[in-house]
């Protein structure tokens, strides 16, 4: 039982937007054992859409189409789907009522004919009502295969997938059980790791797959098990992990949750009723932004400062001028003072701080591009580490952020 | 002349990573008139790779393959490409030297056989040397079609595309000239806009395409012109814009640069030698993060505070307690005090501030979820606006950030 995702719209092909929709669908489907065979992004073009539908129907049992459902002329998906199914468009009264309601609630614009046309759906389609927008989802079946067309607006598509598409698919098909377990390692390259665990890998049972996912200093090992029986998959993955762990003890960081590390940290801080403040320099607000992306962050996150200019580190955070002069602004002394002082300022249990040089040019310090100091402060101590994350600005910022989260996670997880 | 991108790796299909590589390639290719016909994401599976290569060869003249070039067992791309081209792998001395150099410079791990195997390339391939990693790019030709295989690590892939793939493609093929011009409008829905400019749209010449790109309160109109002659495309797009502008005067915001709005703001501030500070509440650091993602931000960005907790707004930013009690923390009085005080704190020319409720729950205020106040402070004034961005947390944060940039852009662009 496999699915294919077809995304329609030139904006993905010309790189104007990144296709986050497919990643979302892939992740959600995966939770329920639905594998994605292929993701295909195509132009808003009738011939191309017909061709993609035909190929998808040959390869997959479930075809999810996103995009191309807006009211304007560049969207021809609905008509093309009609043609593919030898069908005609009919007005759906419930969809029309939804369109009218959305207009009366959110829009000062008059309801136009083009908006009313959103209520036209193929006569063979079941409507999936879109409560967040005017373009409905559509569910069609043929020869036991399911075609679902969804609007491309991410939050409209997401609600439709979660609340309607997945429940309907699960009631129609029986999916195998899938489980992924991702092990995070740090400090050994992909190939050295592969050599070390080669024997173990060679003896994995056929229904368990291993993937190496190297990313910025870490290698994640993803074990994927797939079988009809949940019990068999769960037990065998645990068996395999038990065999593996003794071989990677020195580089094992933990398991990667389905959640981001900052979400895991947030949960832990909430449970512990502890609070966090942040002082960022080279990471420029990315740590705070990642923390506050999680709902409920206000339970533990008090606030942060980005002291980008050297003078702000002195003025706002009270870092000593002589420390900066003697040790430079990218130094152990400065990063530790930042963490210590921001923790006091916001009166929190923990603080993270960063100072470094993300490049491309050297800043107010002679530190090599890529150098980043990260500190953690608690009520009774402050400590720091230095890293070199190479000479790509974005990479330095992302790795600095990840590493800061790793250090904090370690701090709040370890028993002292 | 069309290209297809094939990305290989389960991690995209299961949604573990978002395919930003294809968006990058699409954007870069587009600059040089190379259209992307299709993006296809497939599993790390021999049969599937062979099938995708065959289909791509039928549809496109240039096939770009990313991913699947790591040293470990789950990467079978190189062998499969060999099979597709009826070729064998041979050791490339220059690649081997590159692998050895990278290991001696960046890695404490010993150089293993699996690493040395990175130097094996199909005998018919031209090597595209990867100076950022051990997996080389490979360029193959058959029947006038070009196949390029690149590593999936974004910064390795990006350098190879820019510095090697595009120059080689341009010397081999003659591409038409492509120009996109994107017009930003605000305040009228997609369909009302389409109705208003229908006549103009119907009279567009065939070599100019129009797309409506609605996103979070704005509709972008993207005009794309494509022809052999640059002069013809440029002139006709300008003609069409001249015809269009009088019809959308009331909703016209500006042109969307290829750059992000924050990059445009950064350039303008640098030219003007002006500086910026930020005080964020509900946007949680996202504004600062977007500003500092641009190299050279230290020329104008002094720093920011994220005062997430109400108490931090008082303690750090000196917002008056009675204002908070009387008007609530999500109010005109509070947001303007935040902007005014953060500007003074960092001693800058401009400041932005936000306070609001991103949801999902109401915070320290009775303001409806989605309510966001945004203020701009300059040396001689402070003003603010209030918005309701709906009830999706991520949407509220993103729209708040975009809107803050729009307000700042207006402030620094308009002649007073």
UniProtKB/TrEMBL annotation, chains A, B:
SMART domains: MoCF_biosynth (SM00852). It comes from the Bacteria. Pfam families: CinA, CinA_KH, MoCF_biosynth. Residues 4-172 form the MoaB/Mog domain. InterPro entries: CinA, CinA-like_C, CinA_C, CinA_KH, Competence-induced_CinA, MoaB/Mog-like_dom_sf, MoaB/Mog_dom. Belongs to the CinA family. This is CinA-like protein. The lineage of its organism: Bacteria, Pseudomonadati, Bacteroidota, Flavobacteriia, Flavobacteriales.
């Amino acid at each position: 039982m496999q699915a294919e995702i077809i995304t329609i719209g030139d904006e993905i092909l010309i790189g104007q937007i990144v296709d986050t929709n497919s990643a979302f669908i892939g992740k959600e489907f995966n939770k329920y054992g639905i594998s994605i065979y292929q993701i295909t992004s195509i132009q808003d073009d009738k011939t191309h859409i017909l061709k993609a539908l035909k190929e998808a129907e040959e390869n997959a049992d479930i075809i999810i189409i996103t995009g191309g459902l807006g009211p304007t002329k560049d969207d021809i998906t609905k008509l093309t789907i009609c043609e593919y199914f030898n069908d005609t468009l009919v007005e759906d009264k419930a969809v029309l009522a939804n369109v009218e309601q959305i207009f009366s609630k959110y829009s000062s614009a008059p309801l136009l004919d083009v908006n009313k046309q959103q209520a036209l759906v193929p006569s063979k389609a079941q409507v999936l009502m879109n409560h967040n927008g005017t373009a409905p989802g559509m569910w069609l079946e043929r020869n036991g295969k399911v075609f679902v067309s969804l609007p491309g607006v991410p939050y409209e598509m997401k609600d439709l997938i979660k609340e309607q598409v997945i429940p309907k698919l699960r009631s129609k098909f029986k999916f195998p059980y899938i489980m992924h377990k991702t092990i995070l390692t740090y400090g050994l390259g992909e190939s050295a790791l592969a050599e070390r665990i080669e024997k173990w890998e060679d003896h994995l049972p056929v229904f368990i797959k291993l993937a190496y996912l190297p990313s910025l200093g870490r290698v994640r090992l993803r074990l994927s098990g797939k079988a009809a029986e949940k019990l068999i998959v769960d037990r065998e993955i645990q068996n395999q992990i038990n065999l593996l762990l003794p071989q990677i003890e020195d580089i094992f960081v933990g398991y990667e949750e389905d959640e981001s590390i900052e979400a895991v940290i947030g949960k832990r801080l909430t449970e512990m009723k502890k609070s966090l403040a942040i002082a960022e320099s080279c990471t420029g607000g990315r740590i705070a932004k990642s923390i506050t992306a999680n709902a409920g962050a206000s339970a533990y996150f008090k606030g942060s400062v980005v002291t980008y200019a050297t003078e702000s580190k002195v003025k706002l955070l009270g870092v000593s001028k002589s420390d900066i002069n003697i040790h430079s602004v990218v130094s152990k002394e400065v990063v530790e003072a930042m963490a210590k002082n921001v923790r006091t300022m916001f009166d929190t249990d923990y603080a993270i701080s960063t100072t470094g040089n993300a490049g491309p040019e050297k800043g107010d310090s002679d530190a090599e591009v890529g150098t980043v100091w990260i500190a953690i402060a608690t009520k009774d101590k402050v400590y720091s580490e230095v890293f070199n994350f190479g000479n790509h600005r974005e990479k330095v910022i992302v790795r600095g952020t990840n590493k800061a989260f790793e250090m904090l996670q370690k701090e709040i997880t370890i028993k002292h």
